[in-house]
Amino acid sequence: MTERTLILVKPDGVRRGLSGEILRRIEAKGYTLVAVELREATPELLSQHYEEHVGKPFYEPLVEFMMEGPTLAIVAEGNAVIEGFRSLAGTTNPTSAAPGTIRGDLGRDWGLKVMQNLVHGSDSEESSAREIGIWFPNL
Ligand code: IDP
Ligand code: MG
Questions:
Q1: Closest Cα to atom 24, ligand 1: which residue?
Q2: For the whole model, what pTM was predicted?
Q3: Ligand 1 atom at shortest distance from the alpha carbon of 52
Q4: What is the predicted pLDDT for the residue at 5?
């Protein structure tokens, strides 16, 4: 089966009206959309999704941020899509993310406890299988 990844347009991206621009970049790159759904994250879902960050200083602010509004959950498909989308997204910190990337072009530091950086993308085949199972158990 072709590789799949879980992408989230986080609440800052949806609120700022950037869902379409982010979907456009995924499609323009050539990846196929498998699922696209506007969702309200719950603390239970987020503790599974961000399992590796539970207990870190930015964990509570991260959960609060992810519940500020709806998130656009996306599954995209294509060869090497996991690495390819991480490359489109840019590095975690939007201040230093390269121009040309989603975070580099559209994100900035807002002086908050958690970095608002518009998107999430799975970082490995293991994470993508786990995260797609959390957000889209029927896929
Ligand atoms: P990633 O989203 O680039 O994979 P992760 O290290 O998995 O980055 O962190 C998850 C999310 O937590 C980030 O996207 C960002 O919103 C937030 N975050 C990560 N590290 C920090 C930090 O040091 N300070 C504040 N927020 C952070
Ligand atoms: Mg991550």
A1: 114
A2: 0.98
A3: 7
A4: 99
Q: How far is the CA of 122 from the centre of ligand 2 (A)?
A: 7
d(CA 6, CA 38): 14
Mean confidence (pLDDT) of the chain: 98
Cβ atoms 81, 4 nearer than 8 A = yes
pLDDT greater than 80 at residue 1:
no
Nearest CA to ligand 1 atom 12: 62
Q: What does CATH list as the number for 2-135? A: 3.30.70.141
User: Domain residue spans in the chain?
Assistant: 2-135
Segment 29-34 mean pLDDT: 98
Active site residue 120: yes
**For residue 62, which of 72, 74, 54 has the smallest C-alpha distance?**
54
Ligand 2 centroid vs 49 CA: distance in angstroms?
Answer: 9
pLDDT at res. 34: 98
